[in-house]
Amino acid sequence: MYDLIIIGGGPTGINCAIEASKCGLNYLVLEKGVLVNSLYNFPINMTFFSTAGKLEIADIPFIAHGDKPTRREALEYYRRLCEAFKLKINTYETVLSMTATDEGFYEIKTTKDTYLTHSVVAATGFYDTPRELNVPGEELPKVKHFYDDAHPYVGKKVLVIGAANSACDVALETYYKGADVTMAIRKDVIYSRVKYWIRPNIENRIKEGSIKAFFNTHVKSIHQDKVVLETSEGLLTIENDFVLAMTGYKPDYPLLKSLQLPFSQDEKQIPLHDTETLETPLPNVYIAGVLAAGLLTSKLFIENTRHHGTVIAENVKNKIAKTKTEYALS
Ligand SMILES: Cc1cc2nc3c(=O)[nH]c(=O)nc-3n(C[C@H](O)[C@H](O)[C@H](O)COP(=O)(O)OP(=O)(O)OC[C@H]3O[C@@H](n4cnc5c(N)ncnc54)[C@H](O)[C@@H]3O)c2cc1C
Description:
Layout: E1 2-7, H1 11-22, E2 27-30, H2 37-40, H3 71-84, E3 89-90, E4 95-100, E5 106-110, E6 114-122, E7 129-130, E8 143-144, E9 157-161, H4 165-176, E10 180-184, H5 199-208, E11 212-214, E12 218-222, E13 226-231, E14 234-239, E15 242-245, E16 249-250, H6 253-258, E17 285-287, H7 308-329
Parallel strand pairs: 1-2, 1-6, 2-3, 6-17, 8-15, 9-10, 9-15, 10-11
Antiparallel strand pairs: 4-5, 5-6, 7-16, 12-13, 13-14
The chain binds flavin-adenine dinucleotide (FAD).
C-alpha cells in the first residue's frame, strides 16, 4: 500500500518523487522506459532553450558547460538527482490501467504487478505519441517521427515536414551535414515562435536556396523513392529518400482513458484538473508537468511546471494527515 504512485519518470515525475520523499510519503515512480525516457529519445545533439538555472529542482545546481545545457548534461543531472535522493523508481514498467476500489483507494495495474495506493500523479508527458500525417505511405520505414542524428541522412534527399522549432533544427542540422533538404510547410511562413537564434538562420538558408521550402503545402502521399506534395500551384512530385515528420506530439489519450481521467472535449483536450491543486475530478488523483496542457503542448514545459511537485506532495501529505486524525477521533 503506497501513499503516492507517480506515473512517469520524466523531469516532472522525478520532481514529484523528490518532494514526496521530503514530505515523508511512501511513494513509487513507475516508468515505462529508461529514466527520463523522453529526454533520452531527444536528438543526440539537442541543446535546451532554457538556461541550466531555470531547469534546476530541489535547490540542486545543474552543471552545464555552456549557457544552455545539452541533452547529455540533462541526462546526467536527472541521474544524479535520483542517486542523491535515493529515489524509488521502477523503470521498464508500463502502467496499463487504474481503478478506484470500494475503500476509496486506487489499484494500478502495470506490465509487471498491481499496486494499491492512496493517491496518484499522472506525469506521462506527450513525447511518445506523434501527431500523424494520416497520408498513404506514412507506414514506410523511411518516414521518421523521431529524429536522433544527422549521420544517416548524409548525401540523401530529405523532406522535413513542419516549420516549428524541431523542424527548423532538423532541417538545418541535416543540411549542414550534407543532406539535400526540402521543407513542406502548411502555412505561408516559418512558425513565428521559432527561437530567435534559429529563425534568421533557417530563413536565410531558404532565401539563398540552400534549403528548398514549399509553403502552403501538404504532403499528399509518400512512396519508396518519391513524395507527392499538394502545393498552392497543384500537385508536385519530388524525389525522396527520407521523410522527417516534425509535426509535433500529443498526450497518450487512450492511456488517460484507461486511467479513467477525463479531458476537455474541445480542441485543447486538456485533462480536467484544478489549476491550483492539480487534482483531477477523481479524488486524490493529480495531473503534473506538460500533460496538464493537453494539446497546447508548447504552453507548459519543465521550466514553468517545477512547482507541481511541491503542490502535489504537500496536498497529499495534508490529506493523509487529515484522514488519520479523523480516523483517530472516530
Ligand atoms: C527538442 C525539445 C527541447 C526542449 N527544450 C526545453 C527547454 O529548454 N526547457 C524546458 O523547460 N522544456 C523544454 N522542452 C520540453 C520538456 O522536455 C518537456 O516539457 C519535459 O520533458 C516534460 O517533462 P514531463 O516529465 O512532464 O514529461 P516527459 O519528460 O515526457 O516524461 C513523461 C514520462 O512518462 C513516461 N510514461 C508515459 N506513459 C507511461 C506509462 N503508461 N507507464 C509508465 N510511464 C509512462 C514516459 O516514458 C516519460 O519518461 C523541450 C522539448 C523538446 C522536445
